[in-house]
Amino acid sequence: MPRTEPRKAKIEPIHKEEAAALKRLYDAKTDGLSQAAFAAEYGLGSQGNLWQYLNARSPLNASAASKFAAALGVKVRDFSPRLADEIDALAGAEQDMRATPSYRPWPFKRLSQDKICALDHKNFLLLEAAFMDAALGVGLDVLAPMTPKRASSPPAKKNTA
């Protein structure tokens, strides 16, 4: 008969050490914010998920560790050198991929590429103008000519009739 329950990750001693270090930082820095509010505000799922990370019932992963670090204003290495090394290795791999001319990842974490592509031509141009203004405001040389591989075209006009 097929297994119906998800397989639980085995908790190793390193996971318990990381959870204990994280819990010390969490207790010191959250200033009374409830676990439910913290989890919701920083994208860590439910209060139950947060509790499991802090009490070594679920091992930390790179994604959760990064969210905790950002929320607490610390470095991942402050509570998990193991995951900090993993994140550094992933960042190095991403740098290698970015050096490849054909690889251009979507750079915006909170802005869906699909939504941008779904804009009609007029709204695409308005967004592009706003982006150019913002880019100039942070000192990017957006007026320099783009190479053909980096140039993007606005989406085709949609027939709304």
Briefly characterize the structure.
With 161 residues, the chain is mainly alpha-helical. The protein has seven helices and no strands. 52% of the residues lie in helices and 0% in strands.
Attribute tags:
161 residues; 2 domains; mainly alpha; 7 helices
Folded structure, characterized:
- Helix 2 packs across helix 3.
- The N and C termini lie far apart (54 Å).
- The protein is an all-alpha fold and 161 residues long.
- The chain folds into 2 domains: 13-99, lambda repressor-like DNA-binding domains (434 Repressor (Amino-terminal Domain)); 109-161, no CATH class.
- The chain has helices at 13-29, 35-41, 47-54, 62-72, 81-99, 113-117, 121-137.
- It is built from 7 helices and no strands.
- The relative contact order is 0.09.
- It is elongated, with a radius of gyration of 22 Å.
- The longest helix has 19 residues, at 81-99.
Q: Looking at the structure, what is the overall shape?
A: elongated
| Count of DSSP strands | 0
Structural class determined from secondary elements: mainly alpha
What is the CATH architecture annotation of the largest domain?
Answer: Orthogonal Bundle
Gap between N and C termini: 54 Å
> What is the helix tally?
7
Alpha carbon gyration radius: 22 Å
Could you tell me the CATH topology label of the largest domain: 434 Repressor (Amino-terminal Domain)
